[in-house]
Amino acid sequence: MAETTRCFNCTKEIPLGVESCPVCGFSLSGGKVEAIKEAADLNSRAQLLDSRGRFEESVPLYQRAVELYPEFVVALYNLGIALGKTGRWEEAKQSLTRAIKLKPDFAAAYTARGDIDAGAGDYQSAIEDYTMAIELYPDYSVAYYKRALAFMEMGKTEEAQQDLEDYLFYKPHDARARKRLQLLKEGG
Asked: Which of 52, 67, 71, 75 makes a 20 to 30 Å CA pair with 9?
């Protein structure tokens, strides 16, 4: 049985000696292994801080992880979310955009970037990102819900109703969404 290790980026098991992860393309070559290990450790420590709501403290750790390994998609994604939680919209959007450029099928990054746009009041851009996430993963229920909220903010009730119905197909027991849908149908 061949020895394996875990990819520092996507955590999938890969054979030892492979230069890049066959799942996510994360490069392990070029003498970067120690920097990658340190970046992975920093990312993990920062995630622990995030879980405690300490985003201001996690941002520098994510930034250092990305500095050590600029193609670390998960750290870029996490950095974007943490920056968004601290109200640093433009920096958050830049980090998420970099993650998307490195991994164009990263639906969660599109959704997170949509959240940043919605938080900044740019609902049209948010809708575009939520739509891309849905195109990538048509059963991504959270993107339907968030897009519905953005449509509601723009006064597009028919589109919001459709997205809430699609969301409820996947999450039929969500009373909050069901109530929102009922209010929209009643004209409220």
From this structure: 52
Considering just the CA atoms, what is the radius of gyration of the chain in Å?
19
The one-letter amino acid code at 154 reads M
Entry pTM: 0.81
- Per residue in 145-166, pLDDT tens? 999 999 999 999 999 999 999 9
Query: Which structure tokens are listed for 123?
Result: 């609902």
H helix count then E strand count, the chain: 9, 2
Residue type, 78: N
Give the CA distances from residue 176 to residues 27, 122, 147, 181, in Å, rounded to whole numbers and listed in that order. Answer: 43, 24, 15, 9
